[in-house]
């Protein structure tokens, strides 16, 4: 029996496409694309999909960050396919994660906010079965093919009730919001011990890196400068206040030392999450099924720490919120393959199904990355979106060459960036490169029209669709 493990966090790499054949196992013939041998099918292996929620790719050491925040992830990356330019379909958890599990854009699965309807009279939570009943999920497909399926998560944006549980035999989330791997990992390990003799699909998720998660016992401030004056302590209440102030005012005004503090706190969270994942791998290896398992590590989205003078995520489509890690580790893989093409998280589901030799539903919008692992260039546009809290409605297109257009629907304004020369998106070229901006705007609108979402067919009115308990207590808009 064979296994596939899918871990999700920013900067996941797939390497070692060839594998040693266990004694007595029939020899499979690998696919060939443009005369390049590709990974053979891993039929009946298990998959472990791990999501490091809110992990910005730029803070992963193996992707170029100076601090050694991610030694465990880095070790796996050295034996994986590493995708250095993965762009999420959305900039916050609810829409981004559902795209993993459905293989369609947020506009299509319609899980774009926590509430399908929110006003004074009606507060109806969003649910996949009601909003897009025709869609099958990744877990549906695994279960239909005889896999045991389980998800262990940190609640909040991936909690059961939204529809993430669809297709899972077991789907457990932390009772508290924004729970960490401290909750999900022990339960996942217990489940694995009872299912190690079956083929399985495991989704493992934690909010350890998220602004609303604080380590048990508090921080040790390992990366904070010793002379910091302590204006902030790093609490979830401070983070929430800064997030809301940035939204209300359009930007924050922080001292340089405060920005360094918040980034240091973030790095501590990442390093702690990485250590918890090491514990998971250590215990997992005791089960003796590593060579029967595929791992995918990634993140649903990044997060901002003052790159554009705000904190948190969801409200823009800049790279700090969209650029995530992706690593794919195959059984027996012992080397790293770096893939620098710009690729979207819309491609994750078709890639998994291809690797696992499972039939793909017709709904899929992305493409398998298996050819990319074999050296075939990827040249296609990437689309991202956010309707975060009905605070804003943004759509974006990123080209293979690195041109990026962000279109804000409620204001009909646009931003154009050349990511090759301006990776931090500081110079808006929309008023200079007008012909290019016009061309990308046409392509953006045509894309959404082609998937049945004419962006010109409705008014985009700013309103209220709460995510956090502090919002919308008495002032829900009609």
SSE arrangement:
Elements: E1 32-33, E2 36-37, E3 46-52, H1 71-77, E4 81-87, H2 93-102, H3 106-109, E5 115-118, E6 123-125, H4 128-131, H5 138-144, E7 148-153, E8 170-173, H6 181-195, E9 200-206, H7 236-249, H8 256-285, E10 293-298, E11 304-305, E12 311-312, H9 319-322, E13 323-329, E14 337-339, E15 343-344, H10 348-355, H11 370-373, E16 382-386, E17 394-398, E18 403-408, E19 413-418, H12 434-450
Helix pairs in contact: 6-8
Stretches with pLDDT under 50, minimum 5 residues: 1-38
Global Rg: 21 Å
Q: What amount of the residues lies in strands?
A: 15-25%
Can you count the beta strands?
19
Query: So how many helices?
Result: 12
Tell me the overall shape: globular
Give a short account of the largest sheet.
Answer: 9 strands, mixed
Ends distance:
55 Å
Instruction: Give the structural class.
Output: alpha/beta
Q: Helix fraction?
A: 25-40%
What integer is the average pLDDT?
91
Description:
With 478 residues, this protein is α/β, with parallel strands linked by helices. It is built from twelve helices and 19 strands. Strand 1 and strand 2 form a beta hairpin. Helix 6 (181-195) runs parallel beside helix 8. The longest helix has 30 residues, at 256-285. The relative contact order is 0.19. Mean pLDDT is 91; it is low at 1-38.
């Amino acid at each position: 029996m064979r296994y596939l493990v899918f871990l999700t966090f920013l900067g996941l790499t797939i390497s070692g496409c060839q594998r040693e054949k266990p004694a007595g196992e029939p020899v499979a013939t690998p696919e060939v694309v443009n005369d390049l041998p590709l990974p053979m099918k891993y039929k009946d292996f298990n998959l472990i999909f791990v999501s490091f929620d809110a992990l910005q790719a730029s803070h992963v050491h193996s992707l170029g960050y100076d601090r050694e925040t991610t030694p465990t992830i880095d070790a796996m990356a050295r034996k994986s396919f590493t995708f250095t330019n993965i762009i999420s379909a959305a900039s916050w958890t609810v829409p981004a994660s559902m795209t993993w599990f459905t293989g369609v854009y947020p506009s299509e699965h319609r899980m774009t906010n926590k509430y399908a309807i929110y006003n004074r009279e009606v507060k109806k939570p969003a649910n996949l079965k009601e909003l897009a009943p025709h869609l099958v999920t990744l877990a549906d497909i695994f279960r239909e093919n005889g896999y045991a399926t389980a998800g262990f998560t940190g609640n909040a944006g991936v909690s059961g009730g939204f529809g993430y549980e669809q297709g899972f035999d077991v789907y457990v989330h932390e009772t508290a919001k924004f729970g960490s791997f401290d909750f999900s990992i022990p339960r996942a390990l217990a489940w694995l011990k009872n299912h190690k003799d079956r083929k399985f699909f495991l989704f493992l998720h934690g909010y350890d890196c998220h602004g609303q998660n604080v380590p048990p016992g508090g921080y040790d401030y390992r990366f904070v400068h010793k002379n910091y004056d302590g204006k902030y302590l790093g609490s979830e209440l401070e983070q929430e206040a800064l997030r809301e102030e940035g939204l209300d005012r359009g930007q924050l005004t922080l001292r340089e030392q405060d920005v360094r503090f918040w980034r240091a706190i973030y790095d501590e969270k990442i390093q702690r999450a990485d250590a918890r994942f090491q514990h998971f791998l250590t215990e997992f290896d005791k089960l003796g099924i590593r060579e029967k398992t595929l791992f995918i590590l990634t993140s649903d989205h990044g997060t901002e720490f003052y790159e554009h003078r705000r904190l948190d995520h969801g409200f823009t489509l800049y790279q700090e919120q969209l650029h995530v890690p992706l690593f794919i580790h195959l059984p027996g893989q012992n080397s790293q393959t770096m893939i620098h093409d710009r690729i979207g998280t819309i491609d994750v589901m078709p890639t998994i199904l291809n690797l696992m030799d499972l039939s793909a539903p017709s709904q899929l919008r992305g493409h398998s990355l298996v050819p990319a692992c074999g050296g075939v260039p990827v040249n296609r546009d990437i689309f991202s979106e956010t309707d975060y809290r009905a605070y804003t409605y943004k759509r974006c297109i990123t080209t293979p060459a690195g041109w990026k257009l962000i279109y804000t629907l409620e204001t009909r304004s646009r931003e154009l960036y050349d990511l090759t020369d301006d990776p931090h998106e500081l110079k808006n070229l929309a008023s200079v490169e007008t012909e290019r901006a016009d061309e990308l705007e046409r392509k953006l609108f045509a894309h959404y029209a082609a998937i049945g979402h004419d962006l010109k067919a409705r008014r985009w009115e700013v309103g209220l669709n709460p995510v956090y308990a502090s919002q919308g207590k008495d002032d829900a808009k009609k």
